[in-house]
Structure formats: structure tokens, C-alpha cells
Specification:
Largest sheet: 7 strands, parallel
CATH architecture of the largest domain: 3-Layer(aba) Sandwich
Mean pLDDT: 97
Strand content: 15-25%
Strand order of the largest sheet: 8-7-6-9-10-11-12
Helix content: 25-40%
Number of domains: 2
Radius of gyration: 22 Å
Oligomer: single chain
CATH class of the largest domain: Alpha Beta
Low-confidence stretches: none
CATH topology of the largest domain: Rossmann fold
């Protein structure tokens, strides 16, 4: 008998056969609405995104490792994970390239007034916009310097910008001209023309970007959020859009998803809203499987896994 593995996604017959060849006894269930059944009791490895609303992993007494398809871990039942000492690995880096591209796209769309010009096209209005701005020479600050920020910073180096980053201790990171510690966040914010939020969501980062942070920013700042909506105080954000402090914003995440139809965020001409879509590309499935398959090989061989999450820090 092989290692009991439960997977909430069918990666195709060829890929599943390759997992079986590593020595796993694979059980595939649909993630949405998955419920615990008796044949899951000996599960040792779980590959999934978020089946936890209906799948009670506390019944899986032999569960040792959860490999998440996601980067974020806020969907996990942390009480069970900690109580049962379950190892967690995530898909860190798996979405960084498309998200890095998305960040560059939205920065340029904001500065080049693309939303306004596309609206003019829909209305068949031939009207020149003389307020277009350059990215060149501006300062871009990243709240968080992980793989997503690094991929975006790598791409920004060709635009002639200054790139700042924020991390716990202010450690140096490739592609960043200077990094600040989290306790000096406002010192960084006051220097930035564009602020990009890419930090993991934890209890410590809930509403990290609040009214005090907005006050520290330049007048006319541009804001991008690809992390989690709750890292930014949405009420404070809305007020700072209304009062003109924020010149433009691109939000791929909001505090409550999907965004309520009554939310004022839909109505702002200078705010771009996308439905948590920045991570998607035609290559993410292949990257996800390759990462997961490598970890499955490591697990069988007894080697250290990649992307181990500190369940107490939250990333």
C-alpha cells in the first residue's frame, strides 16, 4: 500500500499516474462540497486549495502534510493544523510572474489614463487627453518584498524608476534600490509616487494600510493592491480617494469578495477593479503541478520540502 493522498483537483491521467508511480495511493475528490468519508481516514497527504468549509480534516488523524495550491493560507483551519502539528507548504512563486506583469500593466494604465480613453472609445469620442504621465523617474514602493514584488521589481528596472521595499528587518533584496523595516513604513511611504501592496495577510497586517499610512503618503499617490483586501482599511481608502489624496488605484482584491454591487468602489473613475484575477495565466496550472510534484518526490525521499509555511507567522 502506498502513501494515502487526497487531491481536490484532477491534474489529468498522465500527471496522476506519475504521482502514483512515486508511491502514492491517490484519491481524487471535487473540492467544492467535499465531505469526509471513511476512505479518507488514513490520508497522510492533502493537496488542495480550500475545501475546509465542508471537509473536516480533524477526522484525518494520520494527516501529516497539506500542500496548498494557493500562496495565502488564511483559509486553513489553523486550530486543527496547530493541534495536530500538520506541515503546511504553499505555492509561493507559482503566480509571481503573471502577478508581476499585472502590477506593471496597472501602473501604466493608471498613468496613461487607459480607463478613461477606453471609455471614450466605447462612446466613439475622439478626444485627446493631455494629462498623460510618464513612469520614468518615479519612485515605486512595495509593501512586502516576496516573490511577487520581486518579479514586478525585476520588470520595473527597465523603466528608469527608483524601487523601494518594505520587509520585517529592512533586509536588502535584489532589484530594490533600498529597503525599509516595517517599523519605518511611513518613512518609505512619504517617498513613493506609487505604492504596491504585496505583503502576506496575517493578524499583524490586518488594516496595515490605514488612515495614518495614507496621511504619510504623497498627495496624488497611486495605489495597487494584489495581496488581500483586508490589508488595507477600505473605509480609509475610500475617503482618501474622495478627498483627492489618492490620484488613482488598481485593486485586484477587496475586503469582502465578491465586491458588493452597492460598493462605492465601482463608481470611482480613477479606480480600476478586477475580480482577484491577477494570478491567472495559461501557465499557472503547469507551474503549480511541477512545484507540487517536486515536493511529492521530496516527501517520499525524506528530503526537506520547498515552500514550508511558518504557521505561527502566517507565511
Amino acid at each position: 500500500m502506498g502513501i494515502k493522498l487526497l487531491c481536490t483537483r484532477n491534474f489529468g491521467d498522465k500527471n496522476i499516474d506519475n504521482i502514483r508511480k512515486l508511491g502514492y495511493d491517490v484519491n481524487i475528490v471535487r473540492e467544492k462540497g467535499a465531505h469526509y468519508t471513511e476512505n479518507m481516514k488514513d490520508t497522510e497527504v492533502l493537496l488542495c486549495y480550500d475545501p475546509f468549509d465542508t471537509l473536516d480534516i480533524n477526522n484525518m488523524k494520520k494527516l501529516k502534510w497539506i500542500q496548498l495550491f494557493s500562496v495565502g493560507i488564511d483559509q486553513l483551519p489553523m486550530d486543527v493544523v496547530r493541534k495536530n502539528n500538520i506541515l503546511i507548504t504553499n505555492n509561493k512563486g507559482g503566480y509571481s510572474i503573471p502577478m508581476g506583469e499585472w502590477i506593471i500593466l496597472k501602473i501604466l494604465e493608471m498613468l496613461k489614463h487607459s480607463k478613461k480613453l477606453y471609455k471614450n472609445q466605447q462612446e466613439k469620442l475622439w478626444k485627446m487627453d493631455t494629462g498623460i504621465l510618464e513612469l520614468y523617474g518615479r519612485t515605486v514602493g512595495f509593501i512586502g518584498t516576496g516573490s511577487i514584488a520581486t518579479e514586478a521589481a525585476r520588470r520595473l528596472t527597465g523603466f528608469g524608476v527608483k524601487i523601494l521595499g518594505l520587509n520585517t528587518r529592512g533586509r536588502e533584496v535584489p532589484y530594490f534600490n533600498r529597503c525599509f523595516s516595517t517599523e519605518n513604513m511611513n518613512d518609505m511611504l512619504k517617498l513613493c509616487d506609487i505604492v504596491v501592496i504585496t505583503i502576506p495577510y496575517t493578524k499583524k497586517t490586518w488594516h496595515l494600510i490605514d488612515n495614518t499610512a495614507f496621511e504619510a503618503m504623497k498627495n496624488g499617490v497611486y495605489v495597487v493592491n494584489t495581496a488581500r483586501g483586508s490589508i488595507m482599511d477600505e473605509g480609509a481608502f475610500i475617503e482618501n480617494v474622495k478627498n483627492g489624496k489618492i490620484a488613482g488605484a488598481a485593486l485586484d482584491v477587496v475586503e469582502k469578495e465578491p465586491l458588493d454591487v452597492e460598493s462605492p468602489l465601482w463608481e470611482f473613475e480613477n479606480v480600476i477593479i478586477t475580480p482577484h484575477n491577477s494570478w491567472i495565466s495559461e501557465k499557472v496550472d503547469a507551474r503549480r503541478f511541477d512545484m507540487m510534484y517536486d515536493n511529492l518526490k521530496r516527501y517520499v525521499s525524506g528530503n526537506k520540502l520547498n515552500n514550508i509555511v511558518n504557521i505561527y507567522k502566517g507565511y
